[in-house]
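Figure S4 source data
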Amino acid sequence: MLYIRIRLKKVILFTAVLFVLTSGIAMAKQITLSGRLYYGPSNDRTPIRYARVEVWDDWGLYPLASTQTDSEGRFTIKYENNAPGDGLDQRIDPKLKVICRNEGVNVQGPGVINCIIPGPLNLIPGLTDWGFTTEVIETGLNQNRSNLVYVAPSDRWPAFASFSAMSDVYYKLRSVLKVSPTPERVIAIWPSAVSLANDLKHMSESNINQGASSTIFAIFLSLEGASYPNEAQHEYSHALMHYAYFPDFFYFGSSEPNNPESDFVEGWAEFIPRWARDNDYTENSIGSSHCESGGGFDTTNVLWDLVDSAQSKDESPNYDDDPINDQSQQTFKKIWTILSQDKPHNLADFWNAWKRRYPALAWEVKCCLVNNNTKWVTIKNNQPKVSDIKINGKTINSGDIHSGVLTISATVEDEDEIDIPHLKAYFFVNFPSSPRSWYCLGVDNSISNKNATITWDTRRSWRPVYPYTSGQGYYGGGGRIDPISKDFPGINSEEGIKLRVLVTDGMPWDLISSNSFIDSQPFNIINTTSSIISPQVEASTFNLPRQFSSVQGGNNWYYYIGTPSRFHNAIFDNIVAPWGTLNNYSWNGGAGYSGPRYLQITGRDLNDWRNPGVGGWLLPGEGSDVMLGWKAERHGTVYISAMLNTYWVDATSISSRDDGILFSIWKGDQRIIEESRVFRGNNESNRIPYVFKKVTINVTPGDMIYFYIHRGNWQDCDEMYYSFTISYDSNADLDHPHSTHSISGREVTLSARDDQSEIFSIEYAFHDKNTNSWLAWSRYEKPFTLPVNVDRFIYRAIDSVGNLEPYHIVLVER
């Protein structure tokens, strides 16, 4: 036999069935009875739901009318008083019969279930032995409304409990499906020796002597089992499966525990009561073969998670356990369709049928399968992968300086195709002042082309995004996600900031357990100026000063203090020791004596590189060298050219310690060209105004090329204009342009040519003989007339790649 329940606990039988009735007469011969039927003890009254109520004549010979209680046990019944008599002897003493039967459920038992309230109703106290017309009774009822309470034998209420519970399931199914879930009433017999559900074939093989039933299927309820409404609903759920699968009786062979078929059959029977009551907790008389509070059967847990909502009563109150939006009824109809039409034998069959019928919701069901760690379905569930956190398109290096609006991105991949549309990337930030706390900057819910991105304006106040509804959250990254109810101020200057990007398959609970995360190197934010990024040149060619940036790593360029074997990041601001605040921004050693004094790396006009700005020059610091780095982004051969040109036009250095700079190019810690000197000179004989070098080298991703400027013995007069070009293109223009001039009177005409690139700009600067100073660079637009106070001028050209020509010096004739 199948579905035998083993009694584990003693059942307490309550003592009463309670009926509360009110009555009234609607017209002369029509009587209306209204009431509410209960079962259970006085301190725990429960409505008798969906039961048939019949009114019989006072002799109990024939029925007068019938109706059905509602979900609250209420009923109203009207009938004609057709009792025999001459009117004066007419008695209004009908009997009330309650029958556990409706269109879906019929609980049968010998003389127990069809409960007849003993004795006449005595609608008006004291009228039992008197004969009055109905008009008199109507008047009397209007004057003497009262409730009448009847106590039934205590051994009957478990039948009402089981009947009402099964009827709850039937009528909810009928409401959702819009049709009856079974082709006929399900018969339940009470009391029985044990609780089980079976068909007639197997009944004959059992030891249960309850007699035959007119249906092919019957439920048997033990005295104890009927005391638990959930147990009756469990057996009724087996009946639902029987009618849905008939004539496939696979479930009668699945009684062995711990196999996928048994899990599906018993799990289904545990799921239906939960769904009907929207409550995950069940209580019954059986043992460990059934689950309580969501444990036990994988099938129960998966199906429950599919249909529950945040309002459902379960182990996660106020939280929905699945990502499906069309809750309960719509999802249940899909489950019922699969059960009744595909007839799955196990949870794997159900999963395959769901993917076939509802592919758009396959990921949602996968979430429930994975979340419940089901052992009966093999699920492909690889962790997503995240790599390469970038700011403004460039990989973050330790000590980088950023400012303004940051575009933070990461590469996200997932081998499970079904998960890709649901990937989520959580972006966190960590500050040194709270090393264990990570604050969520934002979430990218629509990752495209493997690229997850958010933006963060570091200059403005902001409030962390909190991915949980309440409390503190922890996740597999080993950090704590703190909910913050206040805004963070914009950042002026902060060092040692880290970013973390954590990726999930979209399931909310994965945020807790995911190990798919990556941390950035620590970097700094300085917002004394807005972030300025020079325009990109073609992807294969890189140049300074054209791509000079306020961001470390911008356009693959880095700005360092030190040597190829020992260096650290320069700082970008407009404060340079010992000069204080300047009009221009630069990479430097920082204010005060914490860093090397005098050291600067300047660019051209930071808003438009075509304009010369301060000219684009560099100066080693007091006791420190300068180095500019470039990071290779892919494998290949790169072609390099470099030009350094002394800032000082005159060879008039008067210090014996002045020796210029020594320039070399390095790949990592290996020098790849010999060292060359550039020197202002004490006189024209030892002046070396510029150096131009070329070299070719193979690189792999991440390799660093360093342009190293060694200060020599002293940094005075070591300012240098610079131009560095690196290209993966063997045909790239690595040479600077060539410019010429002509003078007619005091009118000057400048021109330039370049064999490979366009001339981007020609620039010139005047020397004022009255002040003995050089004026700022100007962009050449057309021939100009030399002012009378100018005795010299310099000029140079720059091409569209960014190659800068060493300047020419022209003496003006008096």
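Figure S5 source data
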Amino acid sequence: MSEDVQFRLIERKLLQNPKAVLAGARKGSQMDIMVLSNTWTTPPGNVSAEEAMDVFLTHLQEDRVPTNIADKFVHEANLAFASMLGLSKIGPFLSEDGPLVQRLVDAWPGIYKWSVFLFSTRIEGLERTNTRRRATLDILSAFWYTIEHLDVVREAMVKTPATIEIATRLWLEEDGGPIPTKMDSPAGTCVLGNMLKFADKEALNRVLRVSGGKTDELAKLAIARLQRALKGPAYNPVHITIYMDFINSISRVASHPLRHALLSANIIWIVTTALTKISVLVHTSKDDGWLTAMVSAFGYLRNCLESTEGFTWIAQSVGAGLLQAICDCSPRFDGLDPEDYNMIREIVGEILPRYLVFRSVIEGVDSALNKIERGPQKKRVEKSIIWPEWKKFADLAHERVLVLSQVDAFKGHSTTCDNVKAHGLYISYATGSMLTPQRSSVKRNAKLLLGRRATTKLRANSSKGNVWGRAAPVSKRDYQFLHYFSMFDARMHLHELRRIAQRDFPNTPLTSLVVSIDHTTLPATYALKDLHTYQIGPHPMGTMNAEARNEALIEKVQQNPDRFTLVEMEVPAGQGSHMVLALATGAFWGKEGVDDEEFDHPVASLGRMGGTYSREVALKRIVARLRKLMRDDPLMRGLFDEEEGQ
């Protein structure tokens, strides 16, 4: 009698007398356990999960593992293999606090030893052309993925030696080799990605050691699989979600080489362009899986946009269509879980606005908003639940564009000279730039001022990755705009600063105060510090040389408080921040009361629109102030004038 005929007979017997087949499988009947492992879930209820688990765990006991790895296909190993197949179907019957879960935890030592045995004998011990090797890869992957969905089981697995290493091998060989997988999902990616769900640095290092530390190759493989899934013409949202979740898992540690390698391989651009494609399919397809894929893409961007210096990846994502994708996806936001929606809200309402101090980001956002406001996307976002956050962000962006346009209107696109005699202005970048009081030293030390690649313009729309996941250095144009903006911002808040001085320093001359602006928070905060006790302290992203230069600058101001006013502005930089120091003349404060009426207005602050005025009126008032400021204020004129004879 052929195996096919035997299988059908026992399958019929399982329907008519399931207890007999269960008993035979428990005793070690190869045909009974083969039928049971393949068909016990159909029809539902014919065999309970408890009955099936009892049989399968019997053959996965620790004391049944052969001591000789040469016994690849002994009867006990075949029974264990079939039991793993059977348990790979038990997922729908498991719950975190159910009795079956504890049975799996108790059985883990035996499951682990059998997994190592089968991996050693039937994967490492067989040629890649052997069909049994491919079957073992598939079944072991499916089994591990099923049981590691339970937090308590996954924790036990991660703590066990060699599990992450085996999972890495399953991932590496998921779609490789001469024999294709028969799985309908990327099981290897599921196994390793889920095992690394809460990965720390050491867990990711274990992955690296399996590949010989080849981070670039691991990153490229993960990205290649995602890109294949995105090519179509038939898209599978489940597969796309699995691949993106995996990339999120191996990016979990911000400082780890795996995240850096992914950034170098252009992952921000790739995920953002994937999101733009998903933003269409989430409406045109009836498959709710696209909603999950959308959340996964936003999740990765939420976690990784602020990598390294932050502004590089934000500018790149904006250039790849992030803002358009947000608008297109926005009609679906009201159907998300609160936690998922809050993640997207943080991108729009907290992350993006804080980086609107960099010229590169402002220009990219302005270009995207112009396209959005001319098309149907604006109406979509206006009708969505994220509209209040979006409007605040868009209004802030328009204000910053106005500042940028005024800078360019007065200077074209040229740069300024920082000669203190000509302009009354010192500039220092607290993260390591040169203090440059002489025009000649600006030119001579340009590379030192901004880093080796200081004059490299940030290409927000570039499809090229960055070396070793590092952000591009602050470009010269970004760097200069930060200085202009710090002075604009301080002057635009002059009335507020005077009120703070009256409240907090009533007996201190204005010339003995340091202006402190913090753009790492929303809204930005404005404060004053006592010049005589002021110190910038060690900056987490600074250098010893930068700190020494800053100390010298501060000492100079402290010795000449009537001649200079120090303005510090902190801006976001990924996981840290940059500190920009600008040194204005003592004329910064003007005469008491002169500018009070000019600046005492509900929209006097950049970044906060007055609620009683329309946006158009408010923006016109800001433009008028900026023009008057630059026309009448010698200090601000000095910012934009070229030195005679330059």
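The first strand starts at residue 426 and ends at 429. The two ends are 99 Å apart (CA to CA).
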